[in-house]
Amino acid sequence: MSAPVDADLARPRLPRAIWVLGCVSLLMDISSEMVHALLPVFLVVTLGAGTEMVGLIEGVGEGTASIVKVFSGWLSDRLGRRKALAVAGYAMGALSKPVFALAPAAGWVLGARVFDRIGKGVRGAPRDALVGDLAPPGMSGAAFGLRQSLDTVGAFAGPLLAIVLMAASGDDIRLVFWLALPFGLAAVLLLAVAVRDPPRKASHRPARLPLRRSEFVQLGPRFRAVVLAGAVLTLARFGEAFLVLRARSLGLPLALTPAVLVVMNVVYGLAAYPAGRLADRLDRRGVLAAGFGVLVLADLCLGFAPGLVVGMAGIALFGLHMGLTQGVLSALVSDAAPETARGTAFGIFHLAGGVALLAASLLAGVAWSLAGPAATFLASAGFAVIGLILLFALVDAGHARAR
Fold it and tell me: What's residue 9's pLDDT?
């Protein structure tokens, strides 16, 4: 009689290409977060911009990326190929870095941010669809969680490197922006040489142009419920620039401001892959609900922090929230969408989230300017509570209509 085989040992391993895609994300996030960690301070201190401009740059940048993701996702479905679009998008992200370094005014930063986010939009949906295409059956949560974890390693390594470079250069922010460029170029090269599109299936049918009502309806009620729930929940999460500004308001020195994203992303990276594996075994809505419950705690810490220690605890909780939610949301989209329209589905999902993030960032900037940081984080907590209620109602309704 043969010995029982452990379920984990019997499961297939994640393909090498998914690890490579995670490493590509890691390198680009080092590049991007070296800039992003210092950008709010660069805008407010060096260029004299207000918090409204910070919110505008964050929101417009992410909104632009989300609009582009719809069409890049559709195009990747249409072509049956994801890699070329992903390479182009990563190249745009890398080439935006010198513009930040040269910017003499906030308008230049806005332009560079939009160009950078267009690149993110071009690569985002095809890359996520490629992960979904490559993931073995029943392992989409682990695949997206792994990619997100490696992405997040870069997201804390970038700010950590920025701290070192700020100390070595005498707080020369522009030099740090220049030194972000090589990491972005390395990401483009790795993707170009080490990843291939999976074979195109003979039954593949070219996707039609997105944003038609008929096409959206064909994606099904379960997918629509996930998109709507995700958009509402995103209203509770504004740009991370406000975490940096909050830490500065609590007394964090200029040279150490990238530590905000180090703390957030260390927790994010440690949580993302286990959260994805857990979501493969349990009800994914339960993992999401836990993530947004943690966001409420983070907002309360940040809104009422008496000092830097409590503020940094709130930032760590914000990172835990991200780890519990972002990969799981992607897995829900991948599971709910038809395989031949997966790129389009991710594009629509990112569009809805980007519009919500634009609104959230603008609201955060105005609330901060008019009523201070406490109002900003309390508004986030309120949206999180509403989102938690809608999450179960909407997805339950989507399951019922799908039967």
Answer: 46
